[in-house]
Amino acid sequence: MAFLDNSGDIILDAVLTDTGRMRLAKGDGSFKITKFALADDEINYGLYDKNNPSGSTYYDLQILQTPVLEAFTNNASSVKSKLLSISRDDLLYLPSMKVYNGTGYEQFDLTGTGENTFIIAVDDTTVKAINGTDSTTSISTNGILNGSRAAGQSGAGSAKIRVDQGLDTTDISDELGIDPDLLETQYLIEMDNRLGFLVASNAPATADLSFIDDDNIATYYLTQGDSGFVTIMTTTTPTNIAGPRGSNLAFRIASSITLKTNNYLFNVLGTAGSQALGSMDGSSSGETYRYIDTFIAITGITTGYRIEVPVRYVKQI
Length: 317
What we know:
Blueprint: E1 3-4, H1 18-25, H2 61-64, E2 68-69, E3 96-99, E4 108-109, E5 116-121, H3 124-131, E6 144-146, E7 161-166, E8 186-192, E9 196-200, E10 209-212, E11 217-223, E12 230-232, E13 245-255, H4 257-261, H5 264-269, E14 271-272, E15 289-300, E16 306-316
Parallel strand pairs: 5-6, 5-16
Antiparallel strand pairs: 1-2, 3-7, 4-5, 7-13, 8-11, 8-15, 9-13, 10-11, 12-13, 14-15, 15-16
């Protein structure tokens, strides 16, 4: 990855993604470029200086001269902040998405980091260590999900993850409905398929997998009609969104068979844990654990707004 000098002539740097090169390599004439996306991942709009003493020509000069990312083929790393064209000229606010932290959806507090995450206990042994009993079912510690039992087994518990969408402003009453062209009814979810998969929030139903790319990133395409995942919020729905409410996306995460049955990925990608997780303190004999930090990327199809939800897979070793 590198940056291109943007201080002079504009340079167009375009490459095919890994998937695009694979389809081109077939050589059967089926490869066609039918659409493309633009993004502004590298731009910091805080550099706009309306008080520049040299005049209005210099207000956005730093932005225009910001080095742009050289095109690279990894689809999981590029084009995160897609540009959106909106024909309306009466919008003062655009929708955003926020992780909901109400009862049953809390994140785990990572001491000393200033950040929170969702903990996924990957097998029954880890769940028992966290509970401090022989129980393999519900985990009472906030922010820890039972990834061992989420996919169809009883005892998955009530903990889940939820992302809310809407206009996050107090300037517009939360009693007003969001405009239909700003409402997200479809979501794109991307996550590491080696580590886990999506399960509905209120039933042991696994989300339909759309595809897995060459980097083992699984993509799920969920719509309002997918029960247990996408719900339209009402004015009485508890939420962190301050203004008009749109929809929410709720789900659980089930740990993969790979994480359940062997320690390879934890040894290669993981880190030794030390912070207490319930009754598992990370230091006592028989309670040591390792964890893998990752995230789940959620993109709204209507607006292109993207949020990354932090997730930590944990296993007693």
